[in-house]
Amino acid sequence: MDEFTLSLIANSIQLVIFTGLSIYIIYNLIKDSRGSGARILNESMPMKVSLISMYFTLGLLCLLIGNLYWFIIINIDPDGGMRRFTAVDIAAISSFLLWSASIQNLNVVKGKKINWKVIIEPVIFGLVNTWWWIYFSGMWGNNIIWCIVIVPYSGQLACVLHATGCLKGLRMFSIRASLFIVVVAMFINMYAYNTNEKLYYLTDHISFAAWVAALVFLEIYAFRSGKKEAYLLSLFAHLIATYGEFMTEKAEYSIMICMVTLTTVITGFFFMRIRKEE
Amino acid sequence: MIYSENIFMCIAIPIVVLLMFLKRESRRFYAAFLVGMAACLLAAYVNSYFMVVLDATRIECVRYISPIVEEVFKIIPIIIIMLIYEPDDNNLFEYAVIMGVGFATFENCCYIIDNGAESLTFIGIRGFAVGVMHVVCALIDAAVIIVMRHFRSKMILGTIGAFSFAVTIHAIYNMLVSVKGGASMIGYFLPSSVALFLLVIVHFKRKFGTENSNNSQN
């Protein structure tokens, strides 16, 4: 299957899932102003329309419409060269900023002190990741804006997961180990770029494989944990995979687009499960 | 090439004269129309600048650059008006829509002068599509800002969300109408469809709102 067909199928699947999810959430939001599909996030907010619901729904709509735009781009202008920073980036970045804000307002973390021990690892991962992408792509602005999104989102997510106990023991260790391998491999990779060609290619593959492994672990643990808040893990994996999709090409792009689709499907399953529970 | 600043002066001068004879409320609405046109002019300058700097073709500029630039210039006046004059929700909504109309009017004027107005059908479709699109984008900006302004410090994120939503709708429209055939026809109907969608949401919100209040009274 060529890259174009894969991209088309993957984006169609994402579009269908996000459309369904958005319709479901908007229907619930207009039916019951305290509700929305974000009811899972809504922990008895004292406002008529929960701020969390507002942020979450707006973020989802941004992602949906960005997805639609990307779907149109790959159909109309598949070989377009002018894609430095498009509306898709703006849509994705703002949706994750909004989701980040909705996490910040969750009762489990609201008003509590920042736990530096918990957030230090995702922050290091985010920073090294951005540095690596800038080093090889040379796109400063684009990567720094993405960094501003990924670092706070991952830090807040780590705090929520720590507070709710979604990830513990071996599960937490495997994700930490994967991220550690990614970070170390990225450092060696940057060092070997001009000095050792073999080492460069080896660490390139290792870092990418560990990156994908971390995403897969996140998805599996999120789904198996059985906790409501674990769907945030799925959204985080979606964020990382989307970032990877925008930044990679050829075979790595194909893997990342499959990861984005997988995370979208699992996010859909999460909401279906939550709906059943309700 | 057209001299858009000359066209702007030609349309703006009668309105500026008119402003001196109007009462305060009406004056603000006409001023909003003028601001919309000025935003369009500035956006055109910035679009041309980025087109040269990024070495983009005209079609690339339409597809990728202009949606972002135009929406930036559309949302900035709305934010400034909200922060400085602090109008109530209804007035802010009306200012935003009138600014959108001003933006669309000026863009259409320039387009007609540049490309001619021989075909009434095409000009009609353009008026129906671009006119509605700019109004819809301004409406989205205003609607989200109005809702989010009540959350005070959290408003900035809502504004980012509204901006990205408007940019993406604008970009989808530009992308669709930049190719010939069925895609452009879908593009022409997109703004009206979004407007209809917003109306349906408002209708159902009112309906459910009435039902909820009746239930709570019972």
Describe the protein in words.
The complex is a heterodimer of chains A (278) and B (218). By secondary structure, chain A is mainly α. Chain A has helices spanning 3-31, 51-76, 87-104, 116-137, 140-164, 169-192, 197-225, 231-247, 250-277. The radius of gyration of chain A is 19 Å and the shape is globular. Chain A has one domain. Residues 35-48 of chain A have low confidence and may be disordered. Chain A is 78% helix and 0% strand. Chain A contains 9 helices and no strands. With 218 residues, chain B is mainly α. Chain B has one domain (4-211). Chain B contains 7 helices and no strands. Chain B is globular, with a radius of gyration of 19 Å. The chains are: A mainly alpha (278), B mainly alpha (218). The interface between A and B is large, with 38 and 38 residues.
Largest sheet data of chain B: none
Query: Proportion of β residues of chain A?
Result: under 5%
| Main beta-sheet strand count, sense and barrel state of chain A | none
Structural class of chain B: mainly alpha
Describe what is shown at a glance.
The complex is a heterodimer of chains A (278) and B (218). Chain A is mostly helical.
List keywords for this structure.
heterodimer, A: 278 residues, mainly alpha, B: 218 residues, 7 helices, 87% helix
Outline the secondary-structure elements.
The complex is a heterodimer of chains A (278) and B (218).
Chain A: H1 3-31, H2 51-76, H3 87-104, H4 116-137, H5 140-164, H6 169-192, H7 197-225, H8 231-247, H9 250-277
Helix pairs in contact in A: 1-2, 1-9, 2-3, 3-5, 4-5, 4-6, 5-8, 6-7, 7-8, 7-9, 8-9
Chain B: H1 4-19, H2 24-53, H3 58-85, H4 89-115, H5 120-148, H6 155-177, H7 182-217
Helix pairs in contact in B: 1-2, 2-3, 2-4, 3-4, 3-5, 3-6, 4-5, 5-6, 5-7, 6-7
